[in-house]
Amino acid sequence: xxxxxxxxxxxxxxxxxxxxxxxxxxxxxxxxxxxxxxxxxxxxxxxxxxxxxxxxxxxxxxxxxxxxxxxxxxxxxxxxxxxxxxxxxxxxxxxxxxxxxxxxxxxxxxxxxxxxxxxxxxxxxxxxxxxxxxxxxxxxxxxxxxxxxxxxxxxxxxxxxxxxxxxxxxxxxxxxxxxxxxxxxxxxxxxxxxxxxxxxxxxxxxxxxxxxxxxxxxxxxxxxxxxxxxxxxxxxxxxxxxxxxxxxxxxxxxxxxxxxxxxxxxxxxxxxxxxxxxxxxxxxxxxxxxxxxxxxxxxxxxxxxxxxxxxxxxxxxxxxxxxxxxxxxxxxxxxxxxxxxxxxxxxxxxxxxxxxxxxxxxxxxxxxxxxxxxxxxxxxxxxxxxxxxxxxxxxxxxxxxxxxxxxxxxxxxxxxxxxxxxxxxxxxxxxxxxxxxxxxxxxxxxxxxxxxxxxxxxxxxxxxxxxxxxxxxxxxxxxxxxxxxxxxxxxxxxxxxxxxxxxxxxxxxxxxxxxxxxxxxxxxxxxxxxxxxxxxxxxxxxxxxxxxxxxxxxxxxxxxxxxxxxxxxxxxxxxxxxxxxxxxxxxxxxxxxxxxxxxxxxxxxxxxxxxxxxxxxxxxxxxxxxxxxxxxxxxxxxxxxxxxxxxxxxxxxxxxxxxxxxxxxxxxxxxxxxxxxxxxxxxxx
Length: 685
Known about the structure:
The chain is α/β, with parallel strands linked by helices. The protein is built from 28 helices and 19 strands. The protein has a 7-stranded parallel sheet with strand order 13-14-12-15-16-11-19. A 6-stranded parallel sheet has the order 3-2-6-7-1-8, with helices on both faces. Strands 4-5 form a two-stranded parallel ribbon. α1 packs across α2 (32-45) and α11 packs across α12. It is globular. Mean pLDDT is 82; it is low at 534-554 and 625-642.
C-alpha cells in the first residue's frame, strides 16, 4: 500500500510498524486518529482480513467515524467487515456471539438507573444491614463499581469513596465497623443480579476478562478470530480494561494510541500508568512519539508545553506547531462570574460582528456545567445561541425507557425492573399488583409460555391484550418492526394515560429509536448496544442532549462544554473559564499529589483545544485571597513541597494580560422601599 503523502515521518513510521506491540504516544493535535485510520487501512491493503482487526475506542461515535474513514481510503467493499466498538460494546458483542463460551445467553444489560433500582430493592431486603449504615444506595453502587474497575479491595474502596482516602486510626476503625454490613449488601446485590439475569456495564468487561484469564479455550477461540487489536485513547483505560487487554498480548498484536498528558478520568478509574508504563508491562513492545501538532499555533502550544514542564512527572514530550506562529493567549482577569460571563458574551458578539466569525467558531470550557450557569443565563438574555455538552443520554430518557421496557421483557422474562415499569402502564395496576404478576411470571416461566402466564395472572381483556402484544413482538425477526409495534400499542392504548407527551413533545424521538433498532440483527444486541450507545448525534438529529436554548432552526451555535466532555473537540476560539487558585488545582485536590497532577492534565486538555485564539479567564478575588492567606502547602510522597496554583510562575511572555473594568457590576436599587400603588392605570368611567 502507498502510505498517504499527508502523513509525516513519525506517523508513517508508526503505520508501517512490523513488530509485535506498539504504543503511539501522540500529543494533543498530532493526528492520532489519522494514524490509527492509516494503520487499519495499511493492514487491510497488506492482506490482513478486515474481520480479524478490532478497533476499540471510548465512544460509539468515534468508533463509527474511524471505521467509515478507513473504508473511504480502500477500494469499494474492501473494508466492509472491519469492526469498531467501545470496550463495553465489544464485550457485549462477544457475549452475544459466543453465548456458550461466556455463559451469559439471554442476560439483559442494565443501565445506571436500573442498577440503582436493584440496589434499593436489595437495601430494603437487607434492612438489618442497611439500617446500620449512613450510606445511600447510590454510594453503595459507586463503591462497588470503583472496587471492580480499579481492582481495589473493599476496604480501600470505602476509604476512597467515603473518607477521601484518609489514613488514620479513627478512619480505620470506622471502615472496619461498617465493612461487614456493606459486604453483606454488595453480596446480596450480586445474587439479585444473577437471579434476574442482569449484567451491568462492569459485568460485561468482567465476564470476558475472567474467561480469557482462566479459560485456555476462550483464548484459543478468540485467537482464531483476531489478529490485530487497535486501541484508541489508551490513557483513558482503567485497571479492569487493562485486565481485559492483557491476555491479548499473547493472542494478537496490539497497536495502542494515547497520551499520558491527557489522562483526566481517574474519577472513573482511569490509570495513566497504562500508557506511562506500557513498555514495562508489555513484552516485545516499543513506544513511538508524535509531537508535530496540526491544530494550534505555536503560542498556544508554548503555554501548554510550559504547563507540563512544571510537573514533577516526566511526560517527555514537547509539541511543535506545523501552522507556525499566531496570537499570544489572553489571560483575562475578572472580579466575579457575572463580569466574566458578560465579558465572554461581548467577546463572542464582537468576533461575530467585526471579525466575521461564526458562533460555532467558539468553544467555552469549564470544570463543570454548574459553573457555566451564569454564562448560559447571559447568553439567553443576549440572544447568543448555544448547546451544552454533558446532558442525559438518549436511551436514558424516560419515554424511551418506557417503550424499551416491553422489548426487555420479551428478551429476558426474568427482567423484574422492566416488568414493573411496563405493567404499571396498565389501568388499575400499581406497583404492588405488578409485583404479584411478576412473581407469577418468575414462578412459572420454566413451565409455561409467557402469554399464557399473563392471561392467568391478569384475567380479562387487559391480560389478553398484553399477552397478544407480547406474542406479536416475540414472533418478529426485525428489531425495527418490534419498536414500531411496541410504539403503536403503548402510545395509542396501553400507556397513553401516563405518557400523553409521547404524541406531542417526544414524538420525534421514536423514529430515531427505530433507526437505531434497525441497525441491530437481534433484540438482545439492540438492548445491550442501545444502552451502551453514547454517541452525540444520530444522522444529524440532535436529540441526545438538552440545551437551554433551542437551536434547531439556527445550527450556528457556541458550544459550552465541561473539560471532561471536550476530548475530541476543537475550535478557532477557545475560552477556558475560571483558571483561578483553588480551581486549578481544585481545593479538593490539595492534599493529594496524584489529584493535583490530574488537574494539571485537565487544564492541559482545555488549553490544547484552541486552534487560533486561546482566552483564559481567572477571578482576581481568588488571587487576592491567595496573597492574603497562603494556600496550605502540598506534600509529595518524598516530603518535598509541591506547587499549588498552576499559573503562579507563568512567564509574562507567554500571555497578554487583560484586566476587565467594573462596568458589569450590579445596578444599585433605591435606598428605601417605595409603596406600591395598584389603583393607578385603570379608568372606571
